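Encode chain A's predicted structure.
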Amino acid sequence: MLSAHRNDDLLTGKTIAVICAVALFTTACGKKSDAGAPDDTYASLVNKDGTISFPADFPESYMFIGTWSVTAPSGEAEIHSVYSRPADVDAFRSAGKFPDGAVLIKEVTIAKSADLVTGRASWAGDRKIWFLMVKDRKGRFAGNPLWGDGWGWAQFDPTDTKKQTATNYQTDCKSCHIPAKSSEWVYTYAYPALGEKGQVGLPVNSHRGNPPGIVPAVATQAMTSGVASGKMAFDKTCRACHSINPGGAGIGPTLAGVVGRKAGTVPNFDYSDQIRNSGITWTADNIDKHIEAPKSFIPGNRMGNLFPNGIKDPGQRRDIIVYLKSVAQ
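Encoded structure for chain A:
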């Protein structure tokens, strides 16, 4: 589960899923155990009012199912490692969906990177946060702000898993899951242990990685055009949350016609007060400043919480702006 907030006018969200293509299923992933079968979840992890506890038998009774890598200009910014119980994984591999009571745990760590003999490499450093989801096919806790859309949602302090920190799944959790709505809000394609039935909803612009120093010919050709390379950058960093079609708002508002538009003025979009009252007009210069430093350009805006580091490459920012100008016409 990703902790997120709704975005404002320009969400770049450089959250690029780099799927770890290591399909480890039993002893190589973790200890395979019958402990923690789905029927036991609500007795052991969820109390009567819906409060979710972190499992005492983690990691012994859980198995690794896949890894996400979140990139930054200097390398990987975060590594997200995801776990589930063997019984939950077996049920998914059989039915193509998680059973009632299934548990997913995500460990988010700050990555460390260095140039090693194989090239630029990253590995897990300090833990940043824990996320946990419990499958609920019965709608058990109507009215509880941490339950809805078929799941219970929780976040835990990185150093003390007795401290649950989420308050409302709609604002703290759901936003980053919207592209995965069709697969019950889970990016199942990123988890090799789920098998073939998990390979649904794969992004149309996904591609295999290339050895260091090799650039695909199609990318080289596309980069000759500012609009084309801007579209590539937009598709990679923005499209999951923003549409370029008029009236096509998602997590963030549509970016059709954003160049020259006053901030906070797309009809029927629920902006933060910081954006709505900023007085900013989205000139090319202001767009550049905002996507370079989303947290500081308009302090307190929602995008700043989700993507505080922004885009540091001035060429990439320039190309995105060129592309946004082209779709405004």
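The radius of gyration is 21 Å.
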